[in-house]
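Record type: monomer structure entry
Structure origin: computed from sequence
Chain ID: A
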Amino acid sequence: MPLDQGGLEILEAEECRSLLRSAVLGRVVFTDRALPAVQPVNFVLSDGDVIIRTGAGSKLAAAARGAIVAFEVDDFDTIARTGWSVVAIGPARTVTDPRELAALRRLPLRSWVPNARDHFIRIRPELLSGRRVPSPLPR
């Protein structure tokens, strides 16, 4: 596996997609009032796209309309000192088509927040990159 300049393994696109499919929590990076913002979200993948369910009046819903966003997932084992991180970058759009909304409502995506979350955002990954912290060598 190729390594970057810092010694991290560079993940192939298919492994990045597989790791995205294995996660349930991620972070969306977007712009809020001209400043970077990061919001943790639960999500699912549908046809290779990241699907997020949020409130219609949320900052994320307002900021993501047609914007380019970053979406990041990771997993780390602090004892073994290993882990991975995947970043997907692409346009985010509000889903408004009634047939598409009906299909998304059938996905296993339930908000962890108690108030209504009937607003769906679809992120189409156009750039996908990932890194893995390799297992440390035995000492």
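Annotation 1: The chain has a mean pLDDT of 89.
Annotation 2: Residues 12 and 123 are 20 Å apart (CA to CA).
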